[in-house]
């Protein structure tokens, strides 16, 4: 995947469960952390913008494939790209990767729908955003 967005992830003690590894629910938070960077690219936002109030999208689905358990002290990053663009939605493919050896600890997808919060309905992806999404394509 050539057009990846990447974010270093610091595993915190609170991310772990009784078994000592990163809890399964935390992976979706890791996906979200890199997705915010992707949204900044797509929507032209900067760090001072309020992300949720500026981005006309809503998450519709998350999936995660847990490949290898993660433990505190492991140096990881999350990387994502746009794997599919539809009429009203797009899919983000994300991997959690070891920074030192490239091990893939988890991967998954998030479906994002363009949404009009005033009308409370999905909307078509505009050409402007379609072009931005294509620049972040996994292919």
The main pleated sheet reads as: 6 strands, antiparallel
Please compute the radius of gyration using only Cα atoms.
Answer: 16 Å
Give the number of DSSP strands. 6
- Stretches with pLDDT under 50, minimum 5 residues: none
> How many angstroms separate the termini?
6 Å
Number of helices: 3
Instruction: Label the structural class.
Output: alpha+beta
User: What is the domain tally?
Assistant: 1
Name the average pLDDT.
92
Provide the β-strand percentage band.
35-45%
What is the CATH level 1 assignment? Alpha Beta
CATH fold title: Thiol Ester Dehydrase, Chain A
Which overall shape is indicated by the principal axes computed on the Cα atoms? elongated
Task: Indicate the percent of residues in helices.
Answer: 10-25%
Q: What is the name of the CATH superfamily?
A: Hotdog Thioesterase
Query: Which CATH-level-2 architecture?
Result: Roll
The helix-strand sequence is EHHEEEEEH
Furnish the topology, listing elements before pairings.
Elements: E1 5-9, H1 26-43, H2 51-54, E2 57-66, E3 76-85, E4 89-98, E5 104-116, E6 121-122, H3 127-135
Antiparallel strand pairs: 1-3, 2-5, 3-4, 4-5, 5-6
How would you describe what is shown here?
It is a single chain. The protein is of the alpha+beta class and 139 residues long. The chain has a single domain, classed as Thiol Ester Dehydrase, Chain A. Strands 1, 2, 3, 4, 5 and 6 form a 6-stranded antiparallel sheet that branches. The longest helix has 18 residues. The protein is elongated, with a radius of gyration of 16 Å. The relative contact order is 0.24.
């Amino acid at each position: 995947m050539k057009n990846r967005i990447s974010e270093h992830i610091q595993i915190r003690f609170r991310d772990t469960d009784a078994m000592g590894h990163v809890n399964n629910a935390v992976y979706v938070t890791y996906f979200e952390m890199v997705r915010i960077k992707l949204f900044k690219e797509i929507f032209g936002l900067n760090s001072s913008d309020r992300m949720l109030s500026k981005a006309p999208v809503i998450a519709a689905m998350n999936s995660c494939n847990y490949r290898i358990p993660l433990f505190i002290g492991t140096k990881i990053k999350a990387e994502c790209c746009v794997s599919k663009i539809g009429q009203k939605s797009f899919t983000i493919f994300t991997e959690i990767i070891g920074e030192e050896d490239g091990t893939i600890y988890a991967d998954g997808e998030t479906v994002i729908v363009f949404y009009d919060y005033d009308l409370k309905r999905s909307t078509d992806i505009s050409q402007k955003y379609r072009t931005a999404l294509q620049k972040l394509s996994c292919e």
